[in-house]
Structures are given as structure tokens and as C-alpha cells.
Request: fold
Amino acid sequence: MSKNFDVVVIGAGPAGYVAAIRAAQLGMTVACVDDWKNRDGSLSYGGTCLNAGCIPSKALLESSELVHRAKHEFAAHGIGTGPIKVDLARMQQRKAGIVKQLTGGIAALFKANKVTGMQGRGRLLKNLKVEFTPHGGKAEILSGKNVILASGSVPMELKQVPFDDENTVDSWGALEFDAVPRRLGVIGGGVIGLELGSVWQRLGAEVVVLEAMDDFLFMIDRQIAKDTQRQFKRQGLDIRLGAKVNGAKHGKSGIKLSYVDNKGEHHVEVDKVIVCVGRKANSVDLFEKDCGVKTDSRGFVEVDDECRTNVANVWAIGDLVRGPMLAHKGSEEGVMVADLIAGEISEVNYNTIPSVIYTAPEIAWVGKTEEEVKKSGRAYKVGTFSFAANGRAKAMEMAAGLVKIIAARNDDEILGVHIAGPMAGELIAEAVLAMEFSASAEDLQRTIHGHPTLSEALHEAALAADDRAIHAINK
Ligand code: FAD
Ligand code: NAI
Reply:
């Protein structure tokens, strides 16, 4: 086997494997080195996203949402059931089956595209050499005309509440529980905290979410945050804001978490704890010290807008570099870098990366929040439309939440779209496309939407921005 490649990629998560496939499509010889090891010792491609992130979490969110609907919404449709039983082992098997199919799919795609997949650890040396050490094997040297670093991210630890892989776990551990905890403490009310907190709460756990910030989901539009916080509360999620966790004591009756807020010190006793206080770049021992790749103070590899590092022909993409830690952001960077290496024109539009939180209500957004637009000084108008007036949402028994569009006053440019409600993650795609093509609110107003669909809420919100919504009272 040749040890010389046009491109060597380190990491086969959604950033690395996509870069590898795209580079191969463009006619380059590619090796993709990945060291992912599952808890049962098996190896698989796909990184955090496929093995321990996006995919398994969405599988459990879907199953647990069905449990919730069966318990709380079927009756409204006139459907009676006996007591709803949860077979967690079966639910976990379904999840594992989906993960296996998708990770196996990456191996098949590597084969079809003639990407040389290599399972083991990669380390960048000087002069575009990569030391590859297979699991339990001897190191060998690969060389690439280009090297793409895509080693992703790992969970941040909380010194006061260290992981023990049994009762105090990270998000991966929380996807693997084999019994529903009676009382679950979630430290960090961000994306993972809300998604995994929702899973276990729907399956029967009493969930308390301890969030250090005073504002709920501080990064999203405030109007959407207020609306969703109310809905989570109604579902029974106990979200405590401004709560800084400062210790955990293990006793016979559980784990006693202590936290301080502006009223003083408090304690809460739980059986399991998920620590999800953010993730950090996985750059430890990724390169030989004197190979010169610069990282910032938090360990992110420094790159320009085109994902070039400071070392010629070394690129870095995905969670390892600045920007949101999202699978699709990493994948698009992978495509861009492969294109640029092949001499093609390519870019990532960082202003139109959608975010989705897969809770119920689902939350999705693209572009600026109203607060950010206000701060920018640009004159703007806002259109909102509530799912309570949307026929399809009513038929689905999911008529809560809203769509909000923010557009510029002078030229009608869409600046941000924010959705809380059914299928928000699917609906946001229309807004992303609109913004990608620099559409105006009027363009959305003139676009014909099927009836009755959830997408009509987006149409009506665009109309509302000019006080011409049909199914709502305008200002
Ligand atoms: P990773 O997916 O982390 O992959 C990096 C790969 O590199 C891994 O396989 C790792 O083993 C390997 N590696 C690391 N170092 C080396 C080395 N030295 N040698 C060889 N291999 C190495 N994002 C979304 O967009 N949507 C979601 O719904 C979503 N849900 C999530 C849910 C959870 C619970 C978590 C934890 C994350 C979620 N994310 C989601 C975030 C998403 O998983 C990441 O943004 C994405 O996986 C980053 O891709 P990546 O390729 O940069 O890194
Ligand atoms: P996060 O950054 O979303 O949330 C972490 C939260 O923990 C923050 O709200 C922070 O204020 C809080 N926090 C920090 N220290 C704390 C402390 N000591 N006590 C209490 N709260 C504390 O990070 P999270 O949820 O760990 O997820 C990591 C990343 O993974 C996300 O930023 C996201 O990019 C990605 N992800 C994406 C998903 C999606 O797209 N649907 C799903 C899950 C994860």
C-alpha cells in the first residue's frame, strides 16, 4: 500500500469524512485516519456525531417524544391506550441499530470513493508527515501533499463534579443509561442539557437543570427564549437559572449537588448527573510541538476564513476550529477545503449556518437575533406568526410556538429567522435558502406555500413584517 497521498485527513467525523470523500471525488488520493473506539471496543467511522452525538441523541429524542405523545396527546385525538410501557433495552437497541447502519455507511462510502480509511491515531509531524499508529499496533509514517486536521472536540469537565463514568457522566454516558434514573441532575442548561434532559424527563425521570447564566438559552432570540422556557416548565423540566454548581457529595441516598445563586447556597439530591457545560477542541497531542501549528489559548487551531492554518498546506476544520460546534458547519468546511486544494473556488457562508435544538418545541434559527440587530444600529422590522393560527399545526395537535422574521427597514433584507414549534429544524431550511440568495421579506411573501402546511407560518410571518398577515390581526 502506498504511504504517499495527495491528502491525509486526521479524523473521520462529519468534518473529516466529508473532506475525504470530496477530495477523492475531485480525483485526489486520500487517506482518512480515525481513532474512534466504541465502549464495546469496536471501531467505527463518523466521530462524535454518528457514534455519540447527533444521531443517537435524535433517535432517543424521537422515541421519548412518542412516549410523551402517547401519554399526553393521544387522548385528544380520541385514541385510548392502556398504560404506556417503555422497553428501554429495545429503545436503546433501535438507537444502536441506526448508529451501526450509518457508521457502516461511511465505511462503504470510503470504499466506493477509494478513500483509504485507517483506524488508529494520527499525529502531524514536520514537513507534512503524519505518524499513524493503529490500535495496538506499530507506528508508520504517511505523507500528504496536504494534511487536514479534523479531530473534533471533547466534553469539558467540571472540576467540582468529576466524571466517574457511572453516576456522573458526560453526554455519551447519558445516551447509554440502561435504566431511567429516578432523579436526574443536569449541569448546564445548553443544547445538550435541554435535549438529553428532555429525553429522560419524558421517560419518567424527575429532572433538574442547573444553569449558571441568568438568562435562559442566552444565545437565542429573547422572545423565542421566553416562549420556550414557558413550555419546558409546563412539561415539568425544573430549570434553575443563575445556578453555579460548586460541589457534589456522594452519599447513601444519592448525589447531593450544591450550587449558589443570588439567594445563597442550595442543595439538590439526585441519582445520576449529566455534566454538559460545553465542549473543547480536541488538539492535545495532535501534532509534534515544533511542527509550528498555532492554537489559541483554548486549544482551538487558528485558521483563516478558508480554514488554512499558519503552516502551508495544513488545514483545520470542524469543532477543532472557531465557530459553532455543529456537524453541518464542519462538513461544509470539509467540502470547501477539498475544493480549494483542488484549485476550485469555494467558500462557507458563516452568516447562514442554521442551528437547531431538537426539543419539543423544536427551536431553530439562522442569522441575527433581534437583540443583535438592535445593537448593530440597523433599522429593522419584525413579523411574527403563531402556530396557534396554523391549520396543519392544529391538526397535528402541536399548535404552540411561533415564527419570527427580522428584516431591514431600508432594503427589506432578511436578517434573521427564529422558530419555536413543530418541525422547526425542517422549516428553517427555507429561511436559510432565502438568506443564501439574499432574499427580501417580500420574496418570501410572494413565494407560494402549500396549504395546509407548517411552512405557511413562515409565509405569514414574512407578511406580518409589513403588517399584511392574512390570518392574524396586524399591528
Ligand atoms: P468529531 O465528530 O468529534 O470527530 C472527530 C473524529 O476524530 C473522532 O472520530 C475522533 O475519534 C477522531 N480523532 C480525534 N483525534 C484523533 C487523532 N489524533 N487521530 C485519529 N483520529 C482522531 N451537531 C449538530 O449539528 N446537530 C446535532 O443534532 C448535534 N447533536 C449533538 C449531540 C450531542 C450529544 C453532542 C455531544 C454533539 C452534538 N452535535 C450536534 C455536535 C456535533 O457532534 C459536532 O459538531 C460534530 O461531531 C463535529 O464534527 P468533527 O468532525 O469536527 O468532530
Ligand atoms: P452549551 O455551550 O450549549 O451549553 C453549556 C451550558 O452550560 C451553558 O449554558 C453554560 O452557561 C452552562 N454552564 C457552564 N458552566 C456551568 C456550571 N459550572 N454550572 C452550571 N452551568 C454551567 O454546551 P453543551 O450543551 O455542552 O453542548 C456542546 C456543543 O455541542 C453545543 O455548543 C453545540 O454546538 C453542540 N451540540 C449541538 C446540538 C444540536 O445542534 N442540536 C445538540 C447537542 C450539542
Q: What stands out?
A: The two ends are 70 Å apart (CA to CA). Residues 10-16, 33-36, 47-49, 53-54, 57, 121-123, 150-153, 171, 192, 282, 286, 318-320, 325-328, 330 surround flavin-adenine dinucleotide (ligand 1) (CB under 6 Å).
